[in-house]
Specification:
Helix 2 (about 35-50) crosses helix 3, helix 3 (about 75-95) runs parallel beside helix 5 and helix 5 packs across helix 6 (about 135-145). It is built from eight helices and seven strands. The protein has helices at about 15-20, 35-50, 75-95, 105-110, 115-125, 135-145, 180-190, 205-215, and strands at about 1-5, 25, 50-55, 100-105, 130, 150-155, 195.
């Protein structure tokens, strides 16, 4: 089982989370972060033995990547390639490589249902394995292209009856109780390959520690993607 978190977003305790998680989704500058922060995260991830993933986003720093945009396919492909390329260059300079792709925020949800944007994201990300929601269109297209995929669950988020996440701002969207988050993680581990603790949530490090302890007690040792 893998435990991942979003890092390099300038509001996250990156060092604290890297001591707990097994995979790091690194912001690539389009919704948050910059080259210097990416370099710091990559260097510490290498020291900790944490796998690195490219957390690609719409070009939406003002909205933290949470605003859905109708970006033409060719442009979206270029933007994804730019983000993956920058992180790959930095990671290799620090002695490691990018192991997977994970869209962020609004793009994450868009490519779960939109074949055109999903295809554009895949086209811009080479042959990287893809981390996403179970049943997401982008995972189906990645499998068809012969790429590895991993299913992800969110123990600190509420789910709709259709298996999607309750939109932020709506009742039940966020789970704050650490005991409940840990219990949710163990339940999700039966059906997913990785669980994500949101790094921008209050108490993220404590929540990640609780999740890790619960998973290990339940017989799920952690291993990076």
């Amino acid at each position: 089982m893998d435990l991942n978190a979003d890092l390099g977003e300038e509001i996250t305790d990156d060092a604290g989370l890297l001591a707990v998680i097994s995979s790091a989704n690194v912001a690539c500058g389009y919704h948050a972060g910059n080259a210097a922060i990416m370099r710091e995260v990559c260097a510490e991830a290498v020291r900790r033995g944490v796998s690195l993933g490219a957390q690609v986003s719409y070009a939406d720093r003002a909205g933290f990547g949470r605003t859905e945009l109708d970006v033409p396919s060719a442009l979206l492909t270029e933007q994804v390639a730019d983000q993956v390329g920058l992180l790959t260059e930095i990671a290799r300079a620090e002695g490691t490589d990018v192991r997977y792709l994970k869209p962020h925020g609004a793009l994450y949800h868009r490519v779960a249902r939109d074949p055109e944007q999903a295809a554009a994201v895949l086209a811009g990300s080479g042959s990287l394995p893809v981390l996403g929601l179970p049943g997401a269109v982008i995972l189906d297209l990645a499998v068809q292209a012969g790429r590895d995929t991993w299913r992800e669950g969110f123990p600190d988020r509420g789910y709709t009856s259709s298996g999607g996440l309750v939109p932020r701002g709506e009742p039940g969207a966020l789970v704050a109780d650490q005991t409940q988050i840990a219990a949710n993680a163990v339940r999700l581990a039966e059906t997913v390959d990785s669980v994500c603790v949101h790094g921008d949530s209050p108490g993220a490090v404590d929540a990640a520690m609780a999740v890790r302890a619960a998973l290990e007690r339940a017989g799920y040792p952690l291993r990076g993607l």
